[in-house]
Design goal:
Layout (H helix, E strand, L loop, with lengths): L5 E3 L35 H8 L5 E3 L37 E32 L25 H5 L2 E8 L13 E35 L2 E8 L3 E4 L2 E4 L15 E4 L4 E4 L20 H5 L10 E5 L4 E5 L4 H4 L9 E3 L2 E6 L2 E5 L5 E3 L1
Antiparallel strand pairs: 1-3, 2-16, 3-5, 3-15, 4-5, 5-6, 5-9, 7-8, 9-10, 11-12, 13-14, 14-15
Protein name: Phlebovirus glycoprotein G2 fusion domain-containing protein
Pfam family, one: Phlebovirus_G2
Length: 359
């Protein structure tokens, strides 16, 4: 048998506001008989004052004590014939309301850190004999990371990259006239792997939004309320006074959003200006630079071993697309009572736990 709907009742102005539910309300199905005689109505002016002070307090989620009254989220559509519903005082005359459906949703206040791309790290090496081209005197030892040496190809020079030089073999064995050490110019660079760009950030705060369907007598009222917002209907004011959000670690995880695919994942990622070896987000830039692939990445993610004619590097990083199809990070993502979703460029989490109503 379907449980009776949750009701809101309003008390005479002789009492304090808002009405506090008796923590000892019995929850069994046995009810005291209600007199068929309608209660005597108070003076009209008192009733008018009464209707202006109705408020709703939603606290979600709560680990409530046994002596508190909780209401579970429901999608039932109950009928409201009179004021004899659960927790609705029989002397509330015409002021009986019932919650048909409730949904509490939290919207992410997304804080964007940076943009990133999928990329491949590689090297280009050029051997030059001493006293030829760019290899003379102490130039090899003086090469800086951002030097655009002519020996490198144009595409490598324009890519996100770092220049290096190490001494190499000289003499006839290595194709040089002079026996003095030659130069091995090498450049660590990144090339785009895919065309997607990603936004990386976090939800430091979440804004609660409560969706209610309230039936009052023969009137159905759909409401959407945020903290501090009020809705007035025929002199009755509904107010979301406060909410509480569970402190779950998943709510603080970084988000990687692919706007082109209208999808997102939640996983550990490098923070702005602090790339972590092996993580997502080692390549960082603004939106324009990301589209033109003019980003930066730390050369420390690669361990390189140069030789006389070549340089081999082992690089440790994670591209977002490597994780994209993993169910443990792809949104919608559930953890305990919370489900996080990305829809229409908006990140939300829904919590179906019970909540505390006081009126």
């Amino acid at each position: 048998m379907a449980a009776k709907p949750h009701a809101i009742s309003y008390r005479s102005p002789k009492h304090l506001y808002p009405l506090e539910l008796d923590p000892q309300i019995k929850t069994d199905t046995a009810k005291e008989p209600v007199s068929a005689q309608p209660p005597r109505k108070p003076h009209t002016s008192s009733k008018k004052v009464l209707l202006n002070y109705v408020s709703i307090l939603c606290l979600l989620p709560l680990a409530l004590a046994d002596n508190e009254t909780t209401y579970e989220e429901t999608t039932r559509t109950p009928k409201v014939p009179d004021c004899t519903l659960d927790h609705c005082a029989p002397w509330a005359w015409e002021c009986c309301s019932a919650l048909q459906k409730t949904e509490i949703q939290y919207k992410c206040n997304f804080h964007e850190w940076y943009y990133t791309r999928d990329y491949i790290a590689d090297t280009e090496s050029v051997h030059r004999c001493d006293h030829t081209s760019s290899c003379y005197e102490s130039t090899c030892e003086e090469v800086d990371l951002d030097d655009e040496i002519d020996e490198f190809s144009k595409s490598v020079r324009k890519a996100p990259s770092y220049s290096h030089c190490t001494r190499a073999c000289g003499g006839l064995v290595c194709g040089c006239f002079f026996l003095t050490p030659a130069c091995n110019f090498w450049r660590l660079y990144a090339s785009p792997n895919l065309t997607y760009i990603y936004r990386v950030g976090q939800c430091p705060t979440w804004t609660p939004v409560v969706h209610l369907i309230v039936q009052q007598q023969n009137t159905t009222i759909p409401l959407t309320l945020s903290n501090g917002e009020s809705y007035n209907h025929e002199g009755i004011t509904f107010t979301l006074q406060s909410t509480s959000q569970p402190q779950l670690p998943i709510l603080q995880l970084p988000l990687i959003i692919n706007d082109d695919k209208a999808q997102a994942i939640m996983t550990a990622a490098s923070t702005l200006g602090q790339p972590i070896v092996g993580s997502v987000g080692t390549m960082q830039c603004d939106e324009k630079s990301a589209r033109n692939f003019r980003c930066t990445f730390p050369h420390e993610i690669c361990n390189c071993i140069p030789s006389d004619f070549d340089t081999k590097c082992t690089c440790t990083y994670t591209n977002p697309m490597e994780l994209w199809d993993l169910p443990e990070v792809r949104l919608p993502l559930s953890s305990g009572p919370v489900t996080i979703n990305y829809l229409d460029k908006e990140i939300t989490n829904n919590n179906p736990q019970s909540y505390y109503m006081q009126n």
